[in-house]
Amino acid sequence: MTVRTWLRRTAIAFGFLTRLPVPAMHLREGDLARAAVLFPLVGLVVATGGVAARMLTEPLWGPVTGSVVGVLTVVAATGAFHEDGLADTADGLWGGWAPEERLAIMRDSRLGTYGTIALVGLFALRLALLAPAPLGTFATAMVCGHVLGRASALLLTRLAPAVPTSSGAEIAGALRGGDAVVAGVLTIVPTAVAAGMLTVPLVLITVAVSMAAARLFRRRLGGVTGDALGATTAVTEVVAMATVLAWRGGAA
């Protein structure tokens, strides 16, 4: 595979998951699925941006403000992509009585009660975990959370079928052959560098969250959608961050 091919995959992955400037290109069938193996790399880059934002603001306004700015930097870089998926998924999962009703609610762009609660809870947990943490722990939590969060979406596409015509179908089967190895390396190496001995528990937790999500989406939606993948990414991110903070003794 040529360097040009990997550059194209990288541009597609960043163009799909972020609002960062990348060259515009016409997508062919299967392009997104092939680019999806680089999702953990996208997580690493946006996490690095969040850590850099805290490093720049903490000397001026303290760690709490620095953490808020770091979290918001990531949200701005991704265009709240996964947060939107979490909100739509929460509204759909508990706002309808049948899979068809739930999917219709998820396609509705309006924010409902369950989605609002999910978003408030997500940001409250992020800030409660990260705000009091020293910079080193903050960096570890951000890297592990965002890398493993994107990896969980890839794993989910292998654990549950995609709902036909949904955006989740576009990356179905992304983890195949050599691409699975690439995705694994891009997940394990940054996590191991950041978390060391905690890598194995973090990976096992990511697998557990993905398996639980697969079971939930199979039962209530009939499969996985793009919003479901975003929700799983967001939940895995927070769970990984919480694990890092517990291991490091919270704010200690």
Report what the structure shows:
By secondary structure, the chain is mainly α. It has one domain (3-247). Helix content is 75%, strand content 0%. The longest helix is centred in the middle third of the chain and has 25 residues, at 135-159. 48% of the residues are buried. The mean pLDDT is 92.
Structural class: mainly alpha
Question: What characteristic shape results from the CA principal axes?
Answer: globular
Query: What are the low-pLDDT stretches, counting only 5+ consecutive residues below 50?
Result: none
Please tell me the total number of domains: 1
Query: What letter string, H or E per element, gives the SSE order?
Result: HHHHHHHHHHH
Number of helices: 11
In angstroms, what is the radius of gyration?
17 Å
What is the total tally of β strands?
0
| Strand content bin | under 5%
**Helix content percent band:** over 70%
Q: Determine the mean pLDDT.
A: 92
Main beta-sheet annotation: none
Distance from N terminus to C terminus (CA atoms, Å) equals 46 Å
